[in-house]
Write a structure and sequence with these properties.
380 residues, alpha/beta, Rossmann fold, 3 domains, five-stranded parallel β-sheet, 12 helices, globular, disordered N terminus, YspA cpYpsA-related SLOG domain-containing protein, YAcAr
């Protein structure tokens, strides 16, 4: 009567192996999910067999752990991975990379990526892709600042609950330390954004402006003093980052079309000449404009960024409808500018000039042909 193979046969492979029958095939690691290369598996198996023969018995749990360690060393040697450190890198990974390394990396990415586009079907997309590349870092920094705002609220709460105990002090110190590290990350992303924005300006001739918001670059016990000092320093840094310093100069103009490239170049030359002349008179000027990146205001914004001049942008409040432009005029005049530089525009620009003259503000009028004074037309 036949017997079933395997576990049902008392003389199956397992029993035959114990009785000195032909040895069963040894199962190796190569068939398991943790397969090792042939040389590594052989080294592991050899080390195990040598240890058993020398001891005359199988190792206990403690010895098995030691065996595994020595076997792993043999595996690493077989794989030529001796440079690996099983204890891991003990250096801190919490600090951001050096600013110089970040700048070089962003520059390299920009150079490699956008060098592919000229004279291809993708060339027309350079401006949109470049804007998105800069915005990538801008959004990352904004998220970090949102986290910092939440952490500062938690720090205020911990300050209010301070009872002088060691636990409360330690909690406050940990929260402050975390806020500082997040702030370092935000500053790193801002640096990367500013580097990318410089490349964007060089590539497109336009100043990078975010779709919304601003573009700014940010213990009784020692812990309590430190916590309050941190909150105050944080408020001061945010306030300073959102402040412009110097003498305001308003720039206004609309979206213009030119009959030829020569006329466009002549207009741009007149515009830049006007800005340079005003800056010679107002050395500490900052430029106030509406932030229209499709009109001539983008030329003025690019000039300001290239020359390290701060900018104050008053965007349109679309909720106001037709009154949005006139409301922006009021905001611009409220900063009490030294000059109004006016180029051709719509009725909102005309109204700005009228109101500025009524307030005694000097108007640099360039609403004539190709950015020249209107008097030039009558003289011609």
């Amino acid at each position: 009567m036949g017997h079933r193979a395997g576990g049902g046969n008392p003389n199956g492979p397992a029993v035959l192996a114990r009785r000195g029958a032909p040895a069963r095939t040894t199962r190796t690691l190569s068939g398991s999910p943790w397969a090792l290369p042939g040389g590594a598996a052989a080294a592991f198996s050899m080390a195990r067999r040598v240890r058993i023969r020398r001891e005359g018995r199988r190792p206990c749990d403690t010895e098995r752990q030691s065996l595994m360690t020595s076997s792993l060393s043999a595996v690493l040697q077989a794989l030529e991975l001796g440079h690996l450190d099983l204890t891991g890198d003990q250096r801190s990974i919490e600090a951001p990379p050096p600013a110089e390394a970040l700048e070089q990396t962003v520059s390299a990415i920009w150079s490699d990526l956008f060098a592919l586009f000229p004279f291809t079907a993708l060339e027309r997309d350079i401006e949109d892709l470049g804007w998105g590349f800069v915005n990538l870092f801008h959004r990352a920094a904004a998220k970090k600042h949102q986290l910092i705002d939440r952490l500062t609220d938690e720090i205020r709460l911990l300050l209010a609950e301070q009872d002088g105990s060691e636990i409360a002090t330690a909690d406050l110190e940990d929260k402050i330390d975390l806020a500082r590290k997040v702030e370092q990350s935000a500053q790193a992303y801002e640096g990367m954004r500013d580097t990318a924005a410089r490349h964007y300006l060089h590539e497109t001739g336009r100043s990078w402006v975010p779709a919304t918001g601003n573009r700014i670059s940010l213990g009784t016990t020692a812990a309590i003093v430190d916590g309050r000092a941190y909150l105050q320093a944080r408020r001061e840094r945010v306030r300073d980052a959102n402040m412009v310093h110097g003498t305001p100069v308003v720039f206004a103009g609309g979206r213009l079309r030119f009959a030829s490239d020569d006329e466009a170049k002549q207009f741009a030359d007149n515009l830049l000449r006007t800005l340079k002349a005003v800056r010679e008179r107002v050395g500490d000027m900052y430029l106030v404009h509406g932030g229209d990146m499709k009109g001539i205001e983008r030329l003025a914004a690019s000039w300001a960024e290239q020359n390290g001049i701060q900018q104050l942008r008053f965007g349109l409040d679309r909720k106001l409808g037709d009154r949005a432009g006139f409301r922006r005029n009021e905001q611009m005049l409220s900063v009490k500018p030294r000059y109004i530089i006016a180029f051709q525009g719509n009725g909102v620009t005309e109204r700005l000039v009228i109101e500025a003259k009524a307030r005694g503000i000097h108007v640099v009028d360039r609403r004539g042909p190709l950015g020249t004074p209107p008097a030039a037309l009558s003289r011609g």
